[in-house]
Amino acid sequence: MQMMAALPEDAPAAPAQARRVLVLARAAGFVHSSIPLATRTIEALGQKTGAWTTVISYNPADINTANLAQYDAIFLASTTGTFLDDPNDQAVTDVRRKTFMEFVRGGKGVAGIHAASDSYHGTPPGAARGARGGAQPGGAGRGTPQPCSGGGTPGSGGGAPLWPEFNRMIGGYFKFHWNYPTPITVKIDDAKSPINAAFKGKSFNTIDEVYTFNQASWSRENVHVLTSIDYSLMTDCDKGLESNKRTDGDYGLSWIRREGNGRIFYQALGHHESIYYNNPAMLEHILAGLQYALGDLTVDDSPSKR
After folding, report:
1. Is 126 left (phi over 0), alpha (psi -120 to 50) or beta?
2. Radius of gyration (Cα) for the chain, nearest Å?
3. How many Å apart are CA 272 and CA 209, to the nearest integer?
4. Poorest-confidence range of 77-81, 97-101, 138-142, 152-156?
5. pLDDT band at 147, cuts 50/70/90?
6. Residue 136's pLDDT is what?
7. In the 8-state DSSP scheme, what is residue 304?
8. In total, how many domains does the chain have?
């Protein structure tokens, strides 16, 4: 009910045609308690504004050519691990992966929230694990919280990319998170983007489980950054918790990018249920980002750093 009360009245763009979104909520690793609310938020945003209709699925078998023909975008609701794969059938896995990439590269959209980036990374099958066990697919080495604002959970650098096409497509993969409730200031990197219009160019404070990304996997060379952590405002204590520390001090939170003829939108916040109701501007941001992925909202999506 809190989420429904926070919904925007209108979409920033009129749909070019009737749009359909497939929300895929299958987590093959860590399962977030916020997944059901995330799925209903996307459904409610479409219903309230008329921007799209939604089908919610927890079944990776729905990623097939015949079924996807009826959709304009896929929304990944905190998927984790190797969420599309069939561990007992490599041929099925290969077809699903190929179908997924053809969907977006052919001109459709993919949007994801939070643990959509905690997918397809870790210890490759058959590889030896280190003393800490390596970063498991989707599990990403979740451990014991430490002191400071909310503590931190290392991810052993995030491990290796397990599906490099997907990792590049979504924009990067998890290596560490500050535990909920870590306070951060969200910086608006592109105040002119219609996707950020609801923020009115002003940074804001929030708390969540806050992701950071494997440095080799995430770069402004590959994505157009919409928002990021204002790292200068984090406490020295919280900064010191980060394992496999990024050397560039750059911590993206939401971004867009092109993949072939298709479009990607990703938002790293969304671990805790409160993200879906405590800031109405965040819901407008997600609405606009998904409209970009659908192809209804035209924005500058060139990489932030060429």
Report:
1. left
2. 18
3. 7
4. 138-142
5. low
6. 37
7. S
8. 1
Q: What residues make up the domain containing 96? A: 2-294
254 Cβ neighbours under 8 A, 6+ residues apart: 195, 225, 226, 227, 265, 266, 267, 268, 269, 285, 289
- Quick check: is 27 in a domain? yes
Q: Specify the pTM.
A: 0.93
Inside any domain, residue 305: no
60 found inside a domain: yes
Question: What is the phi/psi pair of residue 273, to 5°?
Answer: -55, -30
Helix, strand, coil share (%) of the chain residues, nearest 5: 30, 25, 45
Element (H, E) at 99: helix 90-105
pLDDT tier for residue 289 given thresholds of 50, 70 and 90: very high
pLDDT at 156: 63
Locus of tokens 């699903």: 96
Q: Which residues of 188-198 are buried (b: 16+ CB within 10 A; e: fewer)?
A: bbbeebbbbeb
204-213 vs 174-188, strand pairing mode: antiparallel
Q: Which amino acid is at 100?
A: F
Tell me the one-letter amino acid at 295.
Answer: G
Render the burial of 52-66: b for 16+ CB within 10 Å, e for the rest: bebebbeebebbeee
User: What pLDDT, on a 0 to 100 scale, did the predictor assign at position 305?
Assistant: 86
Q: In whole angstroms, give the CA distance from residue 19 to residue 238.
A: 42
Can you give the CATH number for the domain in which 264 is found? 3.40.50.880
271, 273, 278, 280 alpha-carbon torsion, rounded to 10° = 80
